[in-house]
């Protein structure tokens, strides 16, 4: 019985270690000189969507950077209470520094995922292939602004159409 507990504990440890190593480290100092506004839009579940506000946060549960695009102003403490529609971009660098000035990696370990949260729905649509984010400036300072661009090529998923093309000036909210 004791050996079964040991095997179970080792199995859990083996599963947790790769997840702990797959992190997205924050920049130690400001990088880049981008100054894009939050502008752009696309199609979310067949309906037009335009972003006018953006926030950035590090999800400490998974060590992943998240950029949120909203149609109206949202405070940092309101991210997780915002009503749809909004776009959530998850960037996992698999432990590498955040790339500035070129697209984030999509290599099977590091990834960019764009979740479309349509209005009036509790369901969201996650898209990875065809999604690209490029950071043009990042900073670890609280309330700094992270700039860049996001594109999601036109796709149909579960009978719905999704796309996005735009820039962002995301207020850095820190860690959640």
Uncertain segments of ≥5 residues (pLDDT<50)? 1-22
Q: How many domain regions? A: 1
What is the string of helix and strand elements? HEEEEEEEEEEE
* Beta strands, count: 11
Helix content bin: 10-25%
Quaternary structure type: single chain
What summary fits the major beta sheet?
11 strands, mixed
Report Rg.
Answer: 17 Å
Classify the beta-strand content into a percent band.
over 45%
Question: What is the molecular shape?
Answer: globular
Treating each run of at least 4 consecutive H or I residues as one helix, how many helices? 1
Helix and strand composition category: mainly beta
User: Kindly, what is the distance between the CA atoms of the first and last residues, rounded to a whole number of angstroms?
Assistant: 40 Å
Provide a descriptive summary of the structure in words.
With 176 residues, the protein is mainly beta. 11% of the residues lie in helices and 45% in strands. It has one domain (23-175). The protein has one helix at residues 2-21; strands spanning 31-32, 39-44, 47-50, 53-59, 64-70, 86-92, 111-117, 125-127, 131-138, 145-157, 160-175. A hairpin with a 6-residue loop joins strand 9 (131-138) and strand 10 (145-157). The chain is globular. It starts with a helix and ends with a strand.
């Amino acid at each position: 019985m004791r050996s079964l507990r040991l095997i179970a504990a080792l199995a859990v440890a083996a599963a947790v270690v790769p997840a702990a190593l797959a992190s997205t480290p924050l920049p130690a100092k400001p990088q880049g000189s981008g100054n894009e506004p939050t502008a752009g839009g696309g199609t979310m579940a067949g309906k037009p969507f335009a972003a006018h506000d953006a926030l950035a946060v590090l999800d400490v549960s998974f060590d992943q950077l998240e950029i949120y695009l909203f149609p109206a102003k949202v405070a940092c403490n309101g991210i997780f209470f915002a009503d749809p529609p909004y776009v959530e971009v998850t960037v996992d660098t698999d432990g590498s520094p955040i790339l500035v000035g070129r697209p984030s990696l999509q290599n099977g370990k590091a990834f960019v995922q764009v979740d479309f949260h349509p209005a009036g729905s509790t369901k969201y649509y996650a898209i990875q292939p065809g999604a690209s984010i490029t950071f043009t400036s990042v900073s670890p300072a609280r309330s700094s602004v992270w700039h860049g661009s996001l594109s999601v090529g036109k796709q149909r998923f579960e009978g719905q159409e999704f796309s996005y093309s735009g820039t962002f000036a995301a207020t850095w909210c820190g860690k959640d």
